[in-house]
Amino acid sequence: MIARGFAADVVNHALKRWNNQQDSQDSYWRHWKRYCAENGFNPLSDDPMQVAGLLAKYEVTHGFKFIEKLKVAISTFMELLYDHSERERIALHPLIKSQLAGSRKTKPSQPRHAADEDAWDIGLILKYWTEQPPDAELTIKDLGHKLVSLWLSCSSSRVSDLAHLCRDTITFPCDGRAVITAVRFQYWFTKELARPVRTRFMLIPVGPEERCCVVHTLQRYLQATSDSHRFQHFLQQKGKYMAIDMSQAPPLVVMTCHKGRQQWPLGAERISSWMQNIMQLAGVPSKYTGGSGRMASASFLLDSGFTLEYVLGLGRWQSMTIFKRHYDRSKKANLGLSAQAE
């Protein structure tokens, strides 16, 4: 691929993006190479029948979610290598689509955590930041870590959503005394939209403690990273954005923190790593990943008195079944109260 003119980071994206969380040194692409070696196939072949055989093999032991990521890893690589047209894409082959549709029903994704298990305590993150210096005394790097951990703790968002938080439409509504009451914002190119458009506007109210309030931290972070000579707020046209018209892409919020270098919007993997670091410092059990903030946040908001409609809208869940099965770990849910309240 490099010989054909692809940048090294694009090749890296194609081969290593889909990490297997059971082994950080492994990747979904390696399963394809191993399968091809065992069966005498060419791993650079874009034959959908070979891909279908791999998916059938792993569906039995791993289920829908795993084979879907396998499909994405192989399909994206082949599209980059052979410049497939829309109708030639492996992901759109009728057999592959039928396999995934059937697997979604017979081998659906299982909840990572048991339905009767409480979510981890968001209060640990809040307590951690109340014990740290105030925002005005934090470095930009620490302020970024604080913003990431607070946002994922109170917004019910995916890590990838925060990576696509739009900078240009963020506003801070005030009351009649000119006191900030909330932050109003949009995301761009989210998972449920699956295309480069913006979400509707959403709102997060200020917290009771300014020291650990995400609204005030966001306001200061925007000010600290506003210098467009030092911070390039627009995504670079590389990796998964290569085939996208970036002229309509908005400036984004969370930035890298290299010293002495121009800084760019941060990707979902690095944001998840930042979240994981703060979770460890705050004392969150190590079994929880950076992405588990979506479950913990939704459960925390429900237990804090926010309505189910607000939480579903903030997290943009389209299925009540998925929300109840995978994300609602509130104490009320475990006591059987949330169903009665509805």
Map the helices and strands:
Layout: H1 8-16, H2 28-39, H3 48-62, H4 64-82, H5 94-106, H6 123-130, H7 140-154, H8 159-163, E1 182-185, E2 202-205, H9 214-224, H10 268-282, H11 293-303, H12 308-315, H13 320-327, H14 331-334, H15 337-341
Antiparallel strand pairs: 1-2
Helix pairs in contact: 2-4, 3-4, 3-5, 4-5, 6-10, 7-9, 7-10, 7-11, 11-12
Would you kindly provide a written description of the structure presented here, covering whatever features stand out?
- The chain has 342 residues and is mainly α.
- The protein has two domains: 99 residues, DNA polymerase, domain 1, CATH 1.10.150; 219 residues, hpI Integrase, Chain A.
- The chain has a two-stranded antiparallel ribbon with strand order 1-2.
- The C terminus is likely disordered.
- The longest helix has 19 residues.
Q: What structural class is derived from the secondary structure elements?
A: mainly alpha
Count the helices. How many? 15
Order of helix and strand elements from N to C terminus:
HHHHHHHHEEHHHHHHH
Mean pLDDT: 86
Envelope shape: globular
Number of domains: 2
The count of strands amounts to 2
The CATH class of the largest domain? Mainly Alpha
Q: What Rg do the Cα atoms give? A: 22 Å
CATH topology of the largest domain: hpI Integrase, Chain A
Q: So, the CATH homologous superfamily of the largest domain?
A: Intergrase catalytic core
Distance between the termini: 54 Å
Strand order within the widest sheet?
1-2
* Portion in helices: 40-55%
Which regions contain 5 or more consecutive residues with pLDDT less than 50? 17-26, 334-342
Tell me about the largest β-sheet.
2 strands, antiparallel
Q: How large a portion of the residues is in β-strands, by DSSP E? A: under 5%
CATH architecture of the largest domain: Orthogonal Bundle
